[in-house]
Write a structure and sequence with these properties.
The complex is a heterodimer of chains A (146) and B (819). Chain A is mainly β. In chain A, the strands form two sheets. A five-stranded mixed sheet of chain A has the order 8-1-2-10-9. In chain A, strand 1 and strand 2 form a beta hairpin. The longest helix of chain A is centred in the last third of the chain and has 5 residues. The N and C termini of chain A lie far apart (40 Å). In chain A, 40% of the residues are buried. Helix content of chain B is 36%, strand content 26%. The chains are: A mainly beta (146), B alpha+beta (819). At the A-B interface, strand 4 and strand 5 of A face helix 7, helix 18, strand 17 and strand 18 of B.
Chain lengths: 146, 819
């Protein structure tokens, strides 16, 4: 069985999140800001009776924040009993991976290294395979320093 | 046991006492359930221990079991059970201390005792007495070098029965206590159901909105209303499944404190705050034990004997204070005594002697580190091993239990002033009362338990002042540090805050420190379901949880203690506000006397000095008994003289009482309504009324201030139950029990049968034919012969008997009772 992937656009690059990690894809309608929280945390949003912590993937990867979170798509994932909404530029369909992820010599460029499990071939071409859990901790100190 | 009480007291104080008994039954059921649960849990450990007697982890958990059983027994008065568990605990303690090697014989003996404990628990649950078996054999088997005993089942219930009811020769009806049918469920299942119901409520709200938009549709609106009502009921029921008021736990403590202090010759008063905090049922059970241990320690080691207290300038009666607060997903419970404090140096010395730390380490330790040593296994500050607090095992068990549920325990202590234990407990799911406030267009929730008052800067008379960079307000005569929430969040410049337009929420922390939070607006009081927040949000140390508003919007619940700590608004040692008050008084117009304002039964506003008020109680109308000049009220299990009832009709249903104390005795003052705490700032004008201290202006109104002295005249002393002299009666005489005992009790005596308590007076009947067993300081001789001479009294000579009883109390003004 090939791995199923949620195809999306993160920081202007084509990326994929393993579908097993994703509970659903939502559109962010409203966000409650959290004063004092780190930059990559946009705030809270509600999904039915659950409060989701909204994470801006761009900031988590070390890029500039998204221009507009309201109206964006987000992938809902659960980690250690807490639920998160990962804001992406765009979310597309679920497709099948055609091969195992591979590393590229020289890496994928600034910011991507830590959260990426490699490159994966799909029907629509190569994409970066994202480890969603890595995005929950925000940018790593090294990339901040850089 | 319960039945016996009913026959003695049932006809005199029906409802109140029966209520207490009901509670006792509940506690008993808890005891049985807990013991059985522990027995089940320990089953595996027992087998493992049998295979490997030197396994110290197993030894520890078995030790904890018997220790807990022993503790509970002391509370319920099961002497046999207590003796057994105490014996097993002693033997195991020897092993833990390394003075004894556990061998097969010991394992067998302990197992036999645990089996017997199980059998007795079954008997207690069925409401049956337990057969008079020979426990001595089991206990003797614990001794070093005893022969290996076979684990025989206890003889079944054909022998003599241990309960008091058996005297009348009637056999106990087996299994008469019909047990409520219960099932056990995993908490996660309840959580899931709760979540489902919450989702359902939101779906309903959504549907309601759409229905409103669609206009009136009678065919749909009716059933929809019904659905809503059912949903509301289900939601309430599910919520209740998990929650219990802390009161339920607090309810059992006064009795425990009373018994312990009587046993140890101390006088201790209990004060509760926050009994209405709701806590997960599971969590309540988890803290019951640790709390009991802390209380035992506080009374045994913390609070001094009355004579010592007087010597060091304290009030004779020690104070044990429990205060609970809820904040997001945490409960903080502070237990404070005003005893001698914990000597850190002695702890360090003991720890060094016990090899827990080296001498050098001990010498380097800070006072705080020394105090924390008390949680190390195998350390005790007790000079002597007593039955009450054992050998100091308590605290390591306490910490283990608290940490097992994800809580923390901390201790602060000051020599000569007392000790505080700070328990922080997590809430997996909780409903809390919250105040929603607005800052910069966003809503936040503040746990209402911290909110003392809401004040409006532009309306009320609030004076702002600055001290350095600190903003202060003068509020109700005291200076309170103040911080704007927008500043806490870092979204506003602290120097540019328009204080005049802010609403101030005055907060009081569990440590009694007060500060004010400035917000833009206060919205509403709401009961909210608090959910935990992601660790990354937790890192801000500003928020304790999140909750959804009715419209489904999430808002954040503020972590008040943490915000206060970050802002330096709370210190580690508790500082009473009272001291701040006295410092601030200098600037004011004369001294302020804090008072409590209330409406009397006649509807008139009055004031009482706050320092005389111990507690505010609510009781049912039936718990008040008035007959001629005698007026009494039952609060819990105590009887108080009642005042204030003669100025108007008693309210129907619930009655509010102020419990007043003059330091030695307490009385209850009934009021229609408690208004608020306030202060006398104006001069008092003498009134031509002996019941008044005078009249004065309070907040612009003329208010009579009651004279507490007059209230206590004629109402104090004789009804104090825990100070009652003790009388010992012959136990083998029907007449003594049915005729004499009520008379002696009416004379203000407590009657005892316990052989190890020194009574103030003993009554001997019929030339020594019926002898009370046990020591007494004075003896009265009664005779059935009316012509009796000498020192003896004819047993129906009431006057002479009462006279003799009074004489005996006066003579032995009880120098040795504190021993």
């Amino acid at each position: 069985m090939k791995e199923l992937l949620l195809m999306c656009l993160i920081a202007g690059r084509r990326a994929a999140i393993p579908a097993v990690q994703v509970q659903s894809v939502i559109e962010i309608e409203a966000v409650t800001p959290i004063p004092g929280a780190a930059d990559f945390i946009v705030g809270l949003t509600a999904l039915r009776s659950q409060a989701l912590t909204v994470i801006d993937c761009r900031v988590s990867l070390g890029f500039r924040p998204s221009d507009r979170v309201i109206g964006s798509r987000a992938a809902v994932i659960e980690h250690e009993g807490h639920q998160y909404a990962l804001v992406v530029d765009e979310a597309f369909d679920v497709t099948e991976a055609l091969a195992e992820p591979v590393e590229l010599p020289g890496g994928f460029g600034e910011g991507w290294g830590r959260a990426t499990r490699g490159m994966v071939e799909t029907e629509t071409g190569p994409v970066l395979l994202i480890d969603a859990v890595q995005l929950l901790h925000g940018p790593c100190p090294a990339s901040e320093a850089a | 046991m319960a039945n016996e009480l009913v026959t003695i007291l049932g006809h005199r104080l029906p409802s109140a006492i029966k209520g207490a008994l009901k509670q006792m039954d509940d506690l008993l059921a808890d005891f049985v359930a807990e013991t059985r649960e522990m027995l089940e849990a320990i089953g595996g450990e027992l087998v493992a221990w049998e295979a490997e007697p030197s396994d110290s982890a197993r030894l520890d958990s078995i030790f904890r079991f018997v220790h807990t059983v022993k503790g509970n027994c002391g509370f319920f008065d099961f002497p046999r059970l207590e003796k057994l568990s105490h014996a097993a605990e002693d033997a195991l303690a020897e092993c833990r201390a390394g003075r004894r090697e556990p061998d097969r014989a010991l394992v067998s003996a302990v197992l036999a005792i645990i089996d017997r404990i199980g059998e007795m628990t079954d008997a207690i649950e069925a409401g049956q007495g337990f057969a008079q078996g020979d426990d001595d054999e089991l206990i003797a088997a614990l001794a070093v070098g005893a022969a290996d005993v076979a684990m025989e089942p206890a003889p079944n219930t054909t022998g003599l029965i241990e309960t008091a009811n058996s005297d009348d020769g009637q056999p106990e009806k087996p299994g008469k206590a019909a047990l409520q049918r219960t099932i056990r469920l995993p908490v996660s299942l309840l959580d899931e159901v709760m979540k489902g119901v919450s989702d359902m409520v939101l779906a309903r709200n959504d549907l309601a909105r759409r229905l409103r938009e669609a206009g009136e549709q009678p065919a749909i609106d009716g059933p929809f209303e019904r659905l809503s009502a059912i949903l509301a009921d289900v939601r309430t029921a599910i919520t209740r499944m998990r929650m219990q008021r802390l009161e339920y736990l607090f309810g059992s403590l006064p009795r425990l404190v009373r018994d312990l202090s009587a046993e140890l010759g101390k006088q201790v008063m209990v004060d509760f705050e926050g009994g209405d905090v709701e806590l997960d049922r599971e969590m309540i059970e988890m803290v019951r034990d640790p709390l009991t241990h802390i209380i035992r320690n506080a009374i045994d080691h913390g609070i001094e004997a009355p004579a010592d207290r007087l010597k060091s300038g304290k009030r004779e009666i020690g104070l044990l204070r429990f205060s609970a607060r809820q904040s997001g997903n945490r409960i903080s419970l502070v237990i404070t005594d005003d005893g001698r404090g914990v000597p850190g140096d002695r702890l360090a010395a003991k720890a060094a002697a016990a090899g827990i730390v080296s001498e050098a380490e001990a010498a380097r330790m800070s006072e705080r580190q020394k105090l924390l040593l008390m949680f190390e296994p195998g350390l005790s500050t007790a000079e002597a091993v007593s039955q009450v607090s054992g050998r100091g095992v308590g605290m390591d068990v306490v910490r283990a239990n608290i940490e097992k549920v994800g809580g923390t325990i901390d201790v602060t202590s000051k020599a000569g002033e007392g000790t505080s234990f700070h328990l922080q407990l997590p809430l997996t799911l909780s409903i809390i009362a919250a105040l929603t406030v607005e800052v910069e267009g966003q809503l936040y929730a503040i746990p209402r338990s911290y909110v003392e008052e809401v004040a409006f800067a532009n309306v009320q008379d609030i004076e702002f002042a600055r001290a350095g960079e600190r903003q202060l307000i003068t509020f109700r005569g005291r200076r309170v540090p103040c911080v704007a929430l927008a500043d806490v969040f870092g979204i506003a410049d602290p120097r540019r805050i328009a204080w005049g337009s802010k609403t101030l929420v005055v907060m009081r922390l569990a440590s009694d420190e007060v500060f004010a939070l400035g917000v833009d607006r206060v919205h509403d009081h709401e009961d909210v379901v608090v959910k935990p927040i992601a660790p990354a949000i937790m890192d801000t140390r500003l928020y304790a949880g999140t909750t959804l508003l009715d419209d489904g919007r999430p808002i954040l619940l503020l972590d008040i203690p943490s915000i206060a700590a970050q802002r330096g608004l709370s210190s580690e040692m508790r500082k009473r506000v009272v001291s701040a008050e006295s410092e601030n008084a200098e600037g004011g117009a004369g001294t302020r006397v804090p008072v409590m304002l209330f409406f009397g039964l006649d509807g008139r506003k009055r004031a009482l000095r706050l320092e005389t008020i111990r507690r505010i109680e609510t009781i049912r109308r039936e718990a008040i008994d008035i007959e001629g000049d005698r007026a009494q009220a039952v609060v819990g299990t105590e009887i108080f003289s009642l005042a204030g009832h003669d100025c108007g009709p008693l309210p129907e249903g619930r009655c509010r009482l102020l419990r007043l104390s003059d330091g030695d005795s307490q009385i209850a003052y009934i009021v229609r309504e408690v208004v608020d705490a306030s202060a006398i700032t104006h001069d008092m004008v003498a009134a031509d009324d002996p019941t008044l201290e005078g009249t004065t202006l309070i907040e612009g109104e003329l208010v009579p201030v009651l004279d507490v002295h007059t209230l206590f005249v004629g109402r104090s002393a004789p009804l104090r139950r825990d100070a009652a002299p003790i009388c010992r009666l012959p136990t083998d005489s029907e007449w003594a029990r049915t005729i004499l005992e009520p008379l002696v009790k009416a004379a203000g005596y407590a009657v005892t049968a316990a052989p190890d308590i020194e009574a103030d007076v003993a009554i001997v009947m019929d030339e020594g034919e019926h002898l009370p067993s046990g020591p007494a300081r004075a003896t009265i001789w009664l005779s059935a012969n009316p012509e009796v001479g000498g020192d003896a009294i004819y047993r129906y000579d009431r006057e002479a008997l009462l006279g003799a009883l009074k004489q005996a109390t006066l003579r032995g003004s009880r120098p040795g009772r504190a021993a």
